[in-house]
Prior knowledge:
Layout: H1 3-16, E1 41-43, H2 52-57, H3 61-73, E2 78-82, H4 85-108, E3 112-116, E4 161-162, E5 175-176, H5 180-195
Parallel strand pairs: 1-2, 2-3
Antiparallel strand pairs: 4-5
Helix pairs in contact: 3-4, 4-5
Amino acid sequence: MKIFPTAVALASCLLAGCVTTQKPALAPQAAAPADWRWVQGAVFVPTSSVNEAQQWDEYDPAINDRELHYASVYGINVVRVYLHYDVYLKKRDALLCDIADFLARADRYGIKTEFVFFDDCWNQPPKELLSASYRYPAPLHGVHNSQWLVSPGRTSSPTMRKTSAPEGLCPGHRARPPRRHPSGVLGNLQRADEER
């Protein structure tokens, strides 16, 4: 009977204290510097978006505010947010303003933000993504991350150089990403912080 070993393992784990009902500290100030138990995080993509590119290409402050509020109600205090290089190429200044707006809203709800600049899995972005008239496809029912996009994609930048690094989990993606995307975003955030 295969259920018995699983039940024994689960019971052993519970008895040994692997699972706890004790709530972590609520604020990072109360936790020791190396203690990350206070983190209650999630990947943040608004319900109006099928991927990280649409999240920023069609940024909606009201939807982001509503969903950051929901996240705070459920105890989320850190969100991982993906940025897409093609949106940076398409509308850099608007993207930087939207990022600043998002950070202000997250801060209002006591939520810290972790940005992700590079993602080498899922679908290659279509060339049309850079067009102002591009329409994002609907999600595929029952398929996890069905419309998620690699960032940057193979064709995003002519300055991307090939590297001898081994292929990762997603075959065919071996390009070294350009540096201006993260340094442009981080530099803008640093300047805004210094102006405060």
